[in-house]
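Question (not urgent): is this output format expected?
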Amino acid sequence: MDSLQDFEISNTNPSTTLTPNFPANLSITTVTATTNTNPSATASSSSPSSSSSTSPSTLSRYENQKRRDWNTFGQYLRNHRPPLSLSRCSGAHVLEFLRYLDQFGKTKVHTPLCPFFGHPNPPAPCPCPLRQAWGSLDALIGRLRAAFEEHGGKPEANPFGARPVRLYLREVRDSQAKARGISYEKKKRKRPPQASPLPPPNVNQNQ
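Got this back:
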């Protein structure tokens, strides 16, 4: 965000349904860093003048994705009706953003009336809606939460770490686990077996 401008919000009740005007092409996409195989470009990049500045191509995949997500959320704020500044963004607006992203989801989430509800491998197609997978939303919030603080936001005022957002992610995880018949429980890592201590050497005292 280049600057923060305060706008008056006509409705600040988190339970009120907001209807922002989103552009049709607003979406979260994965950015993959590419490697430049041009020898001349490689030679020039190793010069002292270029090594002093960080090039976007040298960023990790995580950093590239985090920057793209942050720019997308900034576009959401600019296109919101009424417009929103980052300083006025709350957990309710983050939830609105997450629900909006569902239209770009690619994960089939079966409804309770679907015959494949709870089936991990449905044998046939069904008309159930596509949603954003819980894992994608959880990772997205993690990146935006970090980006918020990197752009000067205070941790205690971070809307991406608000309690309603955490509860929403938990609800999505549980509902999708039931609908898809899968488990999101983290597998416990098996600790390597500890070697038993060696017995003390048998010292012959009658030497």
